[in-house]
Amino acid sequence: MRVVIGGGSGFVGRELTRFLCKSGHEVTIISRQPGPGRITWADLESSGLPPCEGAVNLAGENFMHPLRWWNESFKKDLFSSRIDTTRSLAKAIASSSSPPRAWVLVTGVACYKPSQTMQYTEETEWNPFNLFSLLVKEWEAAGSLPENVARNTRHVVVRSGLVLGADGGAIKQMLPPFRLGLGGPLGSGQQPFPWIHVADLAGIIARSLEPPSKPVPSIPEIYNGVAPAQNTNYEFTKALGRVLRRPAVLPAPRLVLQALLGVERAAVLTEGQWVLPKRTLESGYEFQYLNLESALKEIVRS
Ligand code: NDP
């Protein structure tokens, strides 16, 4: 199959591309930069969607960008890099003379309100309550397809937890201090820590691109992209320390994180939600990394 991946040059996109190419599929990346195997967003706008059986959007400004201060201009980029690219791809799918059979958008679990007690599944109704949940609402809305296209193109939204992998994401920034024995829990450490190994996120996306076994529903299918294990940030910290054989006892206090990252951005690290991949498991997806220890061992080994 031929798959077009917006933001395919990034952390998740590289893993998905490796996985698809290994299985004999062809990938075209949509990027801000031209290059071999790529088209740009401007090409998509002017020439439309290249012929493909699947389309995915993974584009988005990194919200933990170490060189970007938390201000209005950065927040604007966080929104536009996700919403505008998603809207462009949905528009290109809708105007294609031969739309792909699957359209997969990866968003985040930030739509679910942080809580120590609530458990969220794909069936949970939610309304925006802060900046990040508003982002998810607008992002997912930007991916919707007109009814006549939605009848034949399966639209899947994967709401991802923090993605763990050796080749990028948050853990790349965490590993150096943890290797020096300077790591520790964020804030109280008691907050839920929804996570997924990058290989499983790529696996869930790839599975969504396969020919459907049932008739395509006309509304988006939501899957939570989180491992079934339910861990706190403290448990994650301890597991990473154990795997690295280093102490991991130095906490990063909430006030320090707020000063460094900005209050809204720090809250994503110091608050969390219990998210269950109910529908993902019911769909028959078998996770490769069910617990933190196995995921972190693979990452540290790589
Ligand atoms: P990356 O940070 O690796 O970015 C993916 C790609 O987005 C980049 O390679 C880049 O492609 C493109 N991009 C970056 N900034 C902009 C911008 N300002 N405008 C347009 N495109 C831009 O993301 P990940 O692979 O980690 O994540 C993929 C998706 O999953 C993202 O949308 C992210 O929000 C979401 N997600 C990720 C999580 C994680 O823990 N990693 C958790 C939950 C959701 P290029 O330079 O080629 O244009």
UniProtKB/TrEMBL annotation:
Supply the InterPro entries for this chain: DUF1731, Epimerase_deHydtase, NAD(P)-bd_dom_sf, SDR39U1
Start and end residues of each NAD-dependent epimerase/dehydratase domain: 3-215
Please give one Pfam family short name: DUF1731
Which residues belong to any copy of the DUF1731 domain?
A: 252-299
User: Per its UniProt record, what NCBIfam families does this chain match?
Assistant: yfcH
Q: Could you identify this protein by its name?
A: Short chain dehydrogenase/reductase family 39U, member 1
Organism of provenance: Paramormyrops kingsleyae
> Lineage in the entry?
Eukaryota, Metazoa, Chordata, Craniata, Vertebrata
